[in-house]
Design a protein that fits this description.
single chain, mainly alpha, 71 residues
């Protein structure tokens, strides 16, 4: 539920979407999805990112090479 609430806050500020790494995905998805469905999709994406960070024990801003070296 917390991921959904965070996603709704992000969706309230479309001018800031480009700041996030998934900004281009979010812009394209907003053109084809209803706002509530988009919030769930964004929450799901955020949950997968969080799971990956916890699973691989890497920093969220770690370079891709560092992440792949730990696999």
């Amino acid at each position: 539920m917390l991921f959904v609430q965070a996603a709704k806050v992000i969706l309230m500020r479309p001018l800031r979407w480009s700041v996030f790494s998934f900004g281009t995905w979010l812009t394209r998805a907003s053109e084809r999805m209803h706002r509530n469905k988009l919030a769930i999709a964004l929450a799901n994406e955020s949950a997968w990112i969080a799971w990956s960070i916890l699973r691989h024990k890497t920093a969220s801003d770690a370079p891709k090479e560092e992440i792949m070296a730990g696999v």
